[in-house]
Amino acid sequence: MKKYSLLNTLLYSFILSLIMMSCTENAFITVVDVDTAGHRSKLAVTARFIKDSPSDKGPQYIYLTASKGINDLADIKQVPNAEVSIREGEQKVDEGIYVDSIPSLYFTEKKVSGYRMEWEGYQPGHTYTLKVKAEGFEPVSATIVMPDKSVINSVQYISQGFTDPDGGEKLDEIVVGMDNLEKGKYYLAELDYVQFYQNGTKLDSAVSSEYLQPEGPLYHRTTNGGLLFRGEDILGLSNKEIRLAKGQGPIDVVHPNNYYQLHLYNITKDQYAFILSVEQYDNIGENPFVEPVVVYSNIENGFGIFSLEYHQTIKIKP
Amino acid sequence: MQKLHYLILSLLLVTSLSGQKKYTISGYLSDGDSGEKLISANVIDLNSEKGTTSNLYGFYSLTLPEDSVTLVFSYIGYGTVIKKLYLDKNIQLNVSLKGSISLETVEVNAEKINKIEEQTQMSKVSLPVDQIKRLPALLGEVDVLKAIQMLPGVQSGSEGQTGLYVRGGSPDQNLVLLDGVPVYNVSHVFGIFSVFNADAIRNISLTKGGFPARYGGRLSSVLEINMKEGNMKKIRGEGSLGLISSKLTLEGPIIKDKSSFIISGRRTYLDVVASPFVALANRKAIDKIKPRIYFYDLNAKVNYKLNDRHRLYLSAYNGSDVLNIGIRHSNVDKTEDLFQSGLDWGNLISALRWNYKINNRLFSNVTATYSKYKLNTGSTIEEQSSQGTSKFAALYISGIEDYGLKWDFDFIPAPAHYIKYGVSATRHIYSPGALSIKLEDTNFNLDTAIGSRDQFSTEYDAYIEDDISLGPLKANVGLHYSLFDVDGKQYQSLQPRIGLRYLLPDRTALKASFSTMTQYINLLTSEAFSLPTDLWVPSTDKIKPQHSWQVALGAARTVLDEYEVSMEGYYKKMKNVISYKPGASFLLGISDDWQDKVTQGKGESYGLEFLIQKKFGNINGLIGYTLSWNNRQFDLINGGKTFPYRYDRRHDLSVVANYKINHRWSFSSAWIFGTGNATTIPIFEYAIHNRAINGPSNFQPFFNVRAAEDKNAFRLSNYHRLDMSFSFHTKHKKWEDTWVFGAYNTYWHKNPYFIFVDTDSDTGKKVFKEVSILPVIPSISYQFKF
Fold first, then answer.
1. Which of A317, B152, B162, B392 has the fewest Cβ atoms within 10 Å of its own Cβ atom?
2. Across residues B705-710, what is the average pLDDT?
3. Distance (Å) from the C-alpha of residue B754 to the closest C-alpha of chain A?
């Protein structure tokens, strides 16, 4: 019995000492030296040139910042006076000098601010190269092909037209017929609701974002409630139509003028990969059980994205 | 099948006609003490220098011309037996060899046939179970897979884990066979221990490349583990008492020399050890906690020798991990709330085998197999109040179940040919995760199930291979065919295999091999951790089968008659390897189809392996070194750029030594070194404009991204540790015992398990911290044998 007690005491002391050791942080944690300061600052570009249809003009966003080591506690800085140019082959199509920007700044002659309202001249199927040079940075570039525009031939709004296979309430559905819906093409769809209201004697309107519900497993939802998908992901590909379910139940139509507007973007494969990776990055947080996400970039020697795309707005009366 | 047999026979007769009458000596080789069959034992005729080896069931067959023969039967670690006779008829000759005592001391070169340079097969390593059992072990619990991890070309995953990464492959690319039955989850306690109880195991071999045609279904390795059959002569037992577990094995004859059994059990008792602390903590607590944490294994096997031609075996394994916590909360109104949460997982496998010696040259084996892996995890909450009782229960179940039938033949028409052929069919049933939720309230009831539906597939395989001897040149040539049927979609694959050996005059063997493999089932697992929640899923019309080809070149030689020295270089290409998409995991979107969470890509690995191994003697052990590169490429990961696999390990070195100091004391040690695992950590930050992501109605202008230069571009600190143990043996009249005193990670190197980014509260700067989980762990265990 004595032997048993002694053995028990020894055993418990041993386990207790292990537990106590495990409670000492320093016993199990090693701070490692990682050369974050060694990260050489590079240009981070977000350049999105959108061509609206049918005007063939649209906004041009460029945003230039410099990357920094994570132990550099200063704010991320923009890169003023960078030289920005767009070329088709050897021929310069557009150029400007970048100025500090916030989204409300507008284009001025020979200056590329963060947001230029209208541009034109780029053609589907043509290859364009963005080049950015700034003092103290390695020049960066990206080359992409302007995608084709979707040729829309019909739009239908079907009340409670979509039944979720996993159950739940029926959802309204938007069906857009297209002539050139194909595999290997990339799309972004967003939905707004334009609501009218009486402001005294005046009729005012307000726009709010609506959520689109994926109808197929390969659609990806963006943080803005939009959907990102490829031609091959479309369930109705053989019918040359995209079917998008509206995330909420039917809205009470208060004013007869109210309508939805569907934004359909024809985007590049690069832009698709970029948006997807940013969404995934945003979703996972610090979850160690999830595959880490590296945000996609098509900028050579830098980070970010250069995107050319077509944008069509389709008005839909519910 | 019979027609195929006659066709092969007639072809071989044409090639080996000599005009002289030939007769066959055949039989079984067994251990003289226990009656256990001896695998790969040698039989050689000294007069003609022709020989053969015994198969997995101890059967051998040697066909020679009519003449005097001097047959030498030998096996490493056993005494040699010599039989002289005049061969003028077919002879059945069963031979028993005595362990470590030489019956006759003769100058023979018989053992050469079993030496590494004599074997056509390359990239295959076997470890004697006795050597494994002498290795120092974590908490005194000897582990077969941890021993395998010390071999060149094999890497462990994270610290303490039993996962095997063979020549750049992932753990699901290893076919782990226990008595010929696939084992789907080889881990206990999240990979700290393996499910294999060394006391119940007879032999272990790992094939990393140069796969003979009889193997199929996985890309990277075949790990064959065979259970003991049970002592045919007398009742024997062995066991151990350790800090966290105990085990006991009993074996013996049911009918002497005709039928035997073995039964072996192991259970951990962390729950029992912890119970006084739990009781103490619960004494005054409002929340009473009741944890249940343990695992157990049970191995059993019986065999029955009907006669010299027929023998039956029935084997089974059942093991499970239980991790459960219950909390009872006492309310002020004297009602109680109950919360229970648990995770349990385990394997159930069994095999029924029929050995049939059809004739002196033809041996067949029919096996019916069953394998099941199941994971249950769930929680229940029961709340009592004055209004009544409400209950919530959620249960998540996943797993895989196999039914298989195999028919294998060994046909030995002449000493220059050893032909194996066979067919098999396996029905797989996959449960890729279903969640059921029940809610009972006074005014609301819910009972629903979500998740992926069960999937079914059938895999058919057929193979033929011939081990051909042409003087110094030996070749193993074969073809493996497989057909996979899943939901009406069919995949087929024809996989050629070839292995060559050329023996130089100085007895150095040059070896080369080429093999292609196809894999139809996949494990959905995180690169970072292997968990019991990992899912086995089939190839489907969306998820294509994995393919690989591998070429290897090497040289092997036995030096000083005891040291096996081998060097191999390999190059392996893999296609359609599977990975979770970035941001995906089984934890996110349980209701989503698993096929939408994964992506397929390519893999490439190459390297050099070096091994010196001494299997027996007072000093034995091994030195294994691997220099390797291992990369992956997925269109949807890392922007499509190639990146190093997490377990891309440039250098991997193991030095293992066992030393028997005297008849009482022995010493064992193992030193392991590995380049740090590749991982992704953010080291810089940049901003993107949100308008690059969303349309005009987005209102958050900026989005900061913390990023790495590339995926898996950072290396954790190098891994190394020294394990040591001393054993003290005592022999009593009827039994013997051993006290084993050991230490894992003797010099307490903080081996990194994972890395995380922390913020220094004083400076605000980011700090990278590596977390290690296993410090120096002393152990003591008591082993006995009777």
1. A317
2. 80
3. 9
| Closest CA of chain A from B684, distance in Å | 4
Q: Say whether residue A4 is in contact with chain B using an 8 A CB cutoff.
A: no
CA dihedral A29, A31, A36, A38 (to 10 degrees): -140
At residue A10, what is the residue type?
A: L
User: Which chain A residue is nearest to residue B589, measuring alpha carbons?
Assistant: A217
Instruction: Tell me the CATH number at A107.
Output: 2.60.40
pLDDT at B549: 96
Residue A13 lies inside a defined structural domain of this protein: no
DSSP A310: E
Instruction: Give B127 to chain A, closest Cα distance, Å.
Output: 33
Q: How many CA atoms lie within 13 A of B406 on its CB side?
A: 25
What single DSSP character describes residue B395?
E
pLDDT value at B650 more than 50 = yes
What does the pLDDT read at residue B629?
A: 96
How many angstroms separate the CA atoms of B546 and B23, rounded? 46
Q: State the CB neighbour count (10 A cutoff) for residue B165.
A: 27
β-bridge pairing B95-97 and B22-31: parallel
Q: What is the domain extent for residue A101?
A: 43-145
Asked whether the predicted pLDDT for residue A300 surpasses 60, the reply is yes
A175 touches chain B (CB under 8 A): no
Are the beta carbons of A266 and A258 closer than 8 angstroms?
A: no
Claim to verify: residue A201 and residue A230 sit in the same structural domain: yes
Judged by average pLDDT, the poorest of B503-507, B621-625, B652-656 is: B503-507
Could you tell me if residue A208 is inside a domain?
yes
| pLDDT exceeds cutoff 90 at A134 | yes
User: Count of domains in chain A?
Assistant: 2
Whether residue A116 is found in the same domain as residue A162: no
Which is higher by pLDDT, B694 or B579?
A: B579
The 8-class DSSP code of residue A214 comes to P
ipTM of the complex: 0.81
| CATH classification (class only), B2-114 | mainly beta
* Statement to judge: residues A210 and A231 lie in one domain: yes
Rounded-to-integer distance, Cα A77 and Cα A80, Å: 9
Q: Which residue of A has its CA nearest to B749?
A: A28
DSSP code at position A251:
P
B164 neighbors B221 (Cβ within 8 angstroms): yes
Q: For chain A, give the longest Cα–Cα distance.
A: 97
Range of weakest confidence among A113-127, A147-161, B205-219, B620-634: A113-127
Contact between B688 and A44 using a beta-carbon 8 Å cutoff: yes
Q: Which residue of A has its CA nearest to B754?
A: A288
Homologous superfamily (CATH) of B124-677+716-785 is: TonB-dependent receptor, beta-barrel domain (2.40.170.20)
Q: How far lies A113's CA from each of A48, A109, A304, A306, in Å?
A: 13, 10, 17, 16
Is residue B528 very low, low, confident or very high in pLDDT (cuts 50, 70, 90)?
low
Asked if B703 reaches chain A (Cβ–Cβ under 8 Å), the answer is yes
- Length of chain A equals 318
What integer is the mean pLDDT of B73-89?
86
User: Minimal Cα distance from A274: which residue of B?
Assistant: B693
B341 phi, psi to nearest 5 deg = -140, 140
pLDDT confidence of residue B111:
42
Structure tokens of B648? 């891309």
Provide the residue ranges of all domains of chain B, joining segments of one domain with +.
2-114, 124-677+716-785
Give yes or no for A71 touching B (CB within 8 A).
yes
Question: B503, B413, B490, B546: which is closest to B15 by C-alpha?
Answer: B413
Calpha distance B741→B384 (Å, rounded): 51
Q: Which residues of A228-263 are buried (b: 16+ CB within 10 A; e: fewer)?
A: bbbbebbebeeebbbbbbbbeeeeeeeeeebbbbbb
Within 8 A by CB and 6+ apart from B578, the residues are B522, B523, B524, B543, B546, B598, B599, B600
**B459-517 per-position pLDDT tens digit:** 999 999 999 988 889 999 999 999 999 988 999 999 999 999 998 988 899 999 999 99
